[in-house]
Each structure stands twice: as structure tokens, then as C-alpha cells.
Design a protein that fits this description.
alpha+beta
């Protein structure tokens, strides 16, 4: 038995397949773009947290080296020393300049008689906005994430 080919029958099937591919792309593209944006925002969050940790360690290292009174062997956290450590944590330099992150804050203090503590905090705000609208009623979902890096070191 022989098949009879009808001219143009394969073309109609091909055109239907193209239309199906466009519909699949229209459904899948926004989901993939949202996933790509979420991955980028998560990477930004990790980068900011890494910056906080490093600035906290740098300030704690500075304090651990300079806060111990060599004569008496006790901690001597003077106001200028605390201000310099705070500037190191917030600006990356002993003086005041451009902050490492907008809205960064640092606290410096003693823990016990031999240890110092540097706490650096920052509120991460995504590029897409500060909140996600709740379409089903109720309050909007906040997207701001508080990041805190704390370092405790023994004074040397």
C-alpha cells in the first residue's frame, strides 16, 4: 500500500508546532527571569554579608592589638580607640570616608576582662523593592533582611 502525499499538509503541522513553542516560551520565560533575579539578589546578599564579616574582623583585630594596657595587663578601651575601631568597621579606614555599605552601623565594647567585641549590622534591601505585595489580602511581605556580623577576640 502506498502513501499519498498531500501538498501543504506538513506545513500546517509545522506552523502549529511553532505556535506551541511560542506559548511555552511565553509561560516559561517570566519564571526563568524571576529565578535568575532571585539568584542574583542572593549573591548580592552574600557579598554584603562577606563585607560585614571582614570589616568586623579588621576592627576586632585592631582593637585586640591596641586595647591591652601592657603595664597593667588590663583592657583599656579609650574613646578615641573605640572611635577608630568603629570607623574601621564602617568605612574600612581609621578616618571617616565613604561607608562600605549604606546604612552600616558598628558597636565596640569589652566582653569580660580579656575580650573585645565588634558588632557590625546592616539591613539588606533588594533591588526589586522593600516589600512583596500580598495579593490575597493582609499585610505586605517585607523583603529587608537584617545582617549582623559579630567578632569577639582576646586582647593581646
Amino acid at each position: 500500500m502506498q502513501r499519498i502525499r498531500v501538498p501543504g499538509a506538513g506545513l500546517a503541522k509545522l506552523q502549529r508546532q511553532r505556535g506551541l513553542a511560542m506559548v511555552e516560551f511565553a509561560i516559561g520565560a517570566p519564571i526563568l527571569l524571576l529565578l535568575l533575579l532571585a539568584i542574583g539578589e542572593f549573591g548580592r546578599l552574600l557579598s554584603h554579608y562577606s563585607t560585614l564579616q571582614q570589616s568586623s574582623r579588621d576592627a576586632a583585630r585592631y582593637l585586640a592589638h591596641n586595647a591591652l594596657n601592657n603595664t597593667t595587663g588590663t583592657l583599656n578601651l579609650t574613646a578615641p580607640l573605640q572611635a577608630t575601631a568603629r570607623n574601621l568597621a564602617m568605612y574600612g579606614t581609621p578616618g571617616i570616608s565613604t561607608p562600605l555599605l549604606p546604612g552600616i552601623a558598628a558597636t565596640v565594647g569589652a566582653v569580660g576582662t580579656e575580650h573585645i567585641q565588634v558588632r557590625v549590622s546592616y539591613t539588606f534591601r533588594p533591588v526589586i523593592g522593600n516589600f512583596l505585595p500580598n495579593f490575597w489580602g493582609g499585610a505586605d511581605i517585607p523583603l529587608n533582611v537584617p545582617l549582623v556580623a559579630t567578632t569577639v577576640m582576646r586582647a593581646m
